[in-house]
Structures are given as C-alpha cells and as structure tokens.
Amino acid sequence: MEGGGSVSWMKYGPVVSLFVVILALWFRSPQNEDLDDRLDTVLSSLLRAEQKVGMSNVVRPKVAVGFGGCVDLIVDGVSLLNKIGLPPTDQPLHHDYIENAEQLAQSFAYFFAPGAAAERFMLNDTLFSELVEASRDLPGNRWSVGGNAPVMAGRMATEGCDVLLGGSFSPDFTDVLSQHITVAGNILDEPDIHLILEYPSGASWGHYTSRRANRYIIHSDDHNPYLDSMEEFAEKLGDFKPDLLVVGGLQMMDNFPFQSGERDALFSRLADLLSSSSPQIGVHFEMASFVEESIMEDLLHYVIPHADSLGMNEQELPNLLSLLKGSNITVLSDPNPRVATVLDQMREVYRILNQRYKDANDGKPLTRLHVHTLAFQAMIVTRGSQWKNTMSATAKASLTANRHVCGSNDIDPSKARLIMDDSFSVSRQEGSQRIPLQETRPVSCWDEEDYEICVAPVLVCTEVYQTAGGGDNISAAGLVLQI
C-alpha cells in the first residue's frame, strides 16, 4: 500500500504542483498588484513633495563642512572574517576599542545579530594592517571617499551647493571631489583607510543571523582625531561666508589615545570657532557612534550648545537622551524602533537641550532635530526659525535613503518595501492620536507646542549596495532644502 501510494503521488505530483502554483498566483496576484500600486503611489507622492521646492540655479547655497576624511575600503564583513579564519564567538561583547582578534569577533557579533551600526578604533596596528591586506583582494571589494564631512560635502555639492570642506587629504583624494568643493586643510602623502564591514539582512555568521542590513566600521586613524584642518578651515570661513556650518567626524576622537589635555584643547578651539561664527549662520552637528562617556560630556559642553540643528540615527538618539537624563550611555538600542518611541525621545531631547540653553543663557537654542531610521524619517523644527520647507526636506531625506543604499538615483519600487506601520501613534502616552499612512500624502506633518513635526516613510531598499554613509547622505539632503 505504501509503495502504491508513492507511485500514485509521483504520477500526479507535477499536476498537483502546477495546480498549487496556479492557486497561489490566483490568490496572491491581486495582493501583489495592490502592494505594487501602493509603492508606486507612495514613491510618486514623495517625489512630488521633494520637487515642491526647487534649488535656485542662480545662487548656490554655501555650506562649510568639517572635519576630516578618509578612504573607505568596503567589503562583505562575514567574508572578511571567514578569510582571516576568525571563528564566530560564543561571547558577543561590547568593547570601547579593539585590541585583538578575539575582541573583534566579540564586538562584531554584538552588533551584527541585531543589525546595529557601530564604529570602533583599533589600537592594534598590526591586526588592522592584516585586515586591510586581506580585504584588498576580497571579491566584490570597493574603494570610496569616506568620512562624515567629505560624504556630506559630496551630497550637498550634488544637490546644488558650493562647499568648503575642512580636512587633510592626499592629492588623489582631492582629485575625485566635486568641482563645487573647496578643500581647507593639509596635504597628506597617504590617506587613512577605514574598513567598512557591510552585511545584508539575513546574513549568517556561525549561529548569528543579522536582523537588518548594516555595517561595522573599524579604523586605526591617527590624523582625523586631531582635527588638523581646523585652523585653515577657520581662516577661510570668513571669506567663504557660508549659509550653513556643518560639523561631523568627531567620533574619530572617541577612545583615541590622546595625551593628557589634548582633547580638551581641541574641543575648546572648536567651541571658539562655532561661537565666533555669525549668529545668522545655522550650525548643524551630525552625531555618530560614540561609546566613551567622557567624550559625550565634552560634546554636551563644547559642541551641542552652539548647534541649532542635530542629526542622528535610532542608536544615537537614545544614547544622547540617556546621557542628558543623567544615566549611562546606551551602547545598543532597538534597531527598528516604533515611530511613537522615537518621537517621544525627540521631544525630550528638544525640551532638555532648550531648557539647558535657557538656564545657561549662552549658545543657541535647538531649533531643528532630524532622526533617520531604517523605516522612517522624523523631524522637529521650531516654528518661526530659519529652517524652511520641512515637509519637502523630510521627503527628500526619505528618498535619499533609498537612493544611497540601492546605489541609484532612480528609485525602483520593485527593489523596495515599506516596513513602517500602516498607521502610527504620535506618542506612547495612552490615548494619543493615531495617524494613518496615506499613500497620496505620505509625509505627515502637524504642530505641537512651539514646533512642527514631520514624519515620512522610507522605501527601504531590498537590494543593498551600501549602508555606510547612509546617515550622512540623508542628513545632508534634508538640510539642503532647509537653508
């Protein structure tokens, strides 16, 4: 009987399989069509929102961006670790900096599984050199201009700005920059290399599986922590007369082995530069992966009080908020937070920093806060401040997320998906308003207290080309329409 049953199944199996496929297509096709139509509608609506504000062809906005830069060597992270024979660890651990291969494995595993972005300084020059050499002939590797400042400068030049870039680079590096970028800094013989260990969603390393696409960055950089272009950058600022001053790349100073007093002196000079700029010039500070508590305290003392605008991701927002509330740094947070959670955290950061400004009666109030996550973009902008076009800027930031990660200016809906909920609460407080995602008006904006909030869904790229530099491109694109 069993044998007969098997023969009978094999005889009719192909027919049954075909019938199952036809049934699946019959039931799934309308649903897929609806999904495709929805993505098309959201995309066309975001594009319309972005295009509501055109850049003037007559006067290009002027943006000064510091500090530093490097050459990124981008590789598949798991392939590199396999190539050097580094086995998956049974102990995912957070390390402030990396001294040996075991710590690298532990630190990579710690951030890889949740799919959280991280950046660490490697004290071990020999190990770092070995990793770079192993990466050079790894299939699919890529070299690109790296560092927060050059990446933001490049995006702003592409979007129609003239840029003054503060950084020390090799001649080869400056040759590939846009003609709309002027460099202020020293000339280096060799650029610093940063290793970008990328991985897609669902990647496996031993028994670890990544929950989302992201990257783990390591460097052994001994130029950028010293902000050695700051003096020449400051000298050129006066004649350049920027509309906006952007500061990034300060995470290079995190856990760097400075001599006693060196870092304080650098931060003090930076504070002087920021405070001496014209009050009419907007100042934006782009956050990054900071893990050393003392440097976060330095940022709160020397940098953030002079910034009108802050940009950060879903890891950096709770990190900053935790410190503002007197708690320890949060090294790892939810990589896919809900909209309500992020908005509550943004309101609290906005409130605390502006209260600190009032109490100190010094510096600048915070009038713009932009948080970029995988699923959505969120902005808080003070009504009546110098920042304009918030709705269009939020849409542009959302579109730029897809363009950068997919590696194409043309957005293909077949390579994208919406992971933001169909509706979201504006707060985690009980009874809070829920806002539905409207395909024809996907950017939701509303007023609260003295500010406007805008939230836009991201068409999340499903065929990832590159995640590194995503936040810098997104923040820069959002700023361009607001100056």
UniProtKB/TrEMBL annotation:
Signal peptide start and end residues: 1-32
Protein name: ADP-dependent glucokinase 2
One function term, GO molecular function aspect: ADP-specific glucokinase activity
One record GO biological process: glycolytic process
Keywords tagged on the record: Cytoplasm, Glycolysis, Kinase, Magnesium, Metal-binding, Signal, Transferase
Cross-referenced CDD domains: ADPGK_ADPPFK
InterPro entries linked to this entry: ADP_PFK/GK, Ribokinase-like
Superkingdom of the source species: Eukaryota
Gene Ontology CC: endoplasmic reticulum
Alphabetized PANTHER family for the sequence: ADP-DEPENDENT GLUCOKINASE
